[in-house]
Design a protein that fits this description.
By secondary structure, the protein is mainly α. It has two domains: 158 residues, no CATH class; 95 residues, no CATH class. The chain contains twelve helices and no strands. α2 runs antiparallel to α8 and α3 runs antiparallel to α4.
Amino acid sequence: MADTANTNAWLPALKAAFPLTIPICLGFLFLGASYGILMGTKGFSFVWPMCMSAFIFAGSMEFVTVNLLLSAFNPLAGFLLALMVNARHLFYGLSMLGKFKGLGWKRPYLIFGMCDETFAINSTAKIPAGIDRSWFYFWVTLCNQLYWVTGATLGGLIGAHLPFNTDGLDFVLTALFLAIFLDQWLAGKHRERLSAVIGVLTSLACLLIFGANDFMIPSMIAMLILFVALRPHLDVLRPAADAPEATADRAMSHAADQQKEGQTR
């Protein structure tokens, strides 16, 4: 009886969650395969991208980790870089505290697996009546991670055996960030682009001061300080209708943009 009741809970939740993850599947398989191929061309076994995608599960950081593994051992720089690249997840977690409350053994995994796209679905989806909320969140999270792990593993398997030149493949993440940046730039109004201008100018200044090999962390720290200091002025420049009411709302908007970009890919 207990097994039947458990099946009656997770199976309908899977049927409700899976269709919402299909657009994510297409983007994750492509990007995950690109990451796996990149690891393969750098001489790593497919086991590396498979395990890293399973235990790190932070796409942008996994691409960055490729160069970290090939450079001099510097755990402090790696820690700071990972913290800055994934700092947005702090706001994701704050906004999901209520939704994840009382979910038992699923809660730790839901926290671990909360990427941009998973957050976008779980934070906005209207769960049908009769569907177990904890299982719905669980299946969305697990499906999205399986897509990424599958893509990375397949890419790693074929990466070392590709017959064509893969020079420039490591630019795929830069191209992705550039596409997202341009999409948000074109969608925003002139006075809403100040934060983007600050980010670009700060990066260029740190590039000139620290050089191409060491500018990443200083530029991220400088941008964080500037955005915190200028936040009241940046909020004033934004139209009242578009101004976020809370940090969690800004996180949801950012994640929705990430999901839209994944569907476009």
